[in-house]
Amino acid sequence: MNAEPADQLRLLDLQALDSKLDQLAHRRRTLPEIGALQALETKLGQLRDVHAVSAAADSDLAREQSKAEADVDQVRARAERDRKILESGSGSAKDLENVQHELESLGKRQADLEDVVLEVMEKVEASAARTAKLAADRTEVEADRERAAHALAQQQSAVDKDVEFARSQREVVAKQVPAPLIALYDKLREQYDGVAVAAIVRRRCQACQIELDIAEVNAAKSAAPDTILRHDSCRRILVRTADSGL
Fold it and tell me: Among 56, 68, 91, 188, who pairs with 117 as Cys (CB 3.0-4.6 Å)?
């Protein structure tokens, strides 16, 4: 395939724009803000799980406290009934003695149950404080995540603007290159890691950085200006420029 020297030079412009687009795509995929946001989302997910467990523990302890208080109330009610029986003096001496013994047992039982209530109340207080701290931490991380998401969106928007500008430039350049040459260029880009064409600078291929051997130099010197040169080493299209040193 042959191509006018001007079209070959346009290929260099096209390659520069495509390389820039590749770099911008890589930059967008690897923005540090992405990692920061992902880390915060992971942390937030963990906090949500722990907070949910702590809140469930609060509910369990609240039920435990209610039950313990109900047990105390039940013993108090029974003791109050026994006291009224004793105060009334109704019943035989044996019955009143039994009531007195039961009242003493109820007193011990009430004291034990009240200790349980106090113990549960301490657990409730500690659990509630832990849950409140987790809720505050969650709110703080949620705010951090929102800020990180906003920062990422700003960086992505900036990259997208650069991409849009580079694409518009590429469209202009591509329209000036003959279709067969574009087809070859696109094919080589797919084959060789996105780099299809390179300039010869001081007898060195700028794609693979390998210097042309003497046979390649002589062939490039003798080739017609519209001849498409291919580098024997990397198979990219070579474009002669004023800095080629040929």
Answer: 68
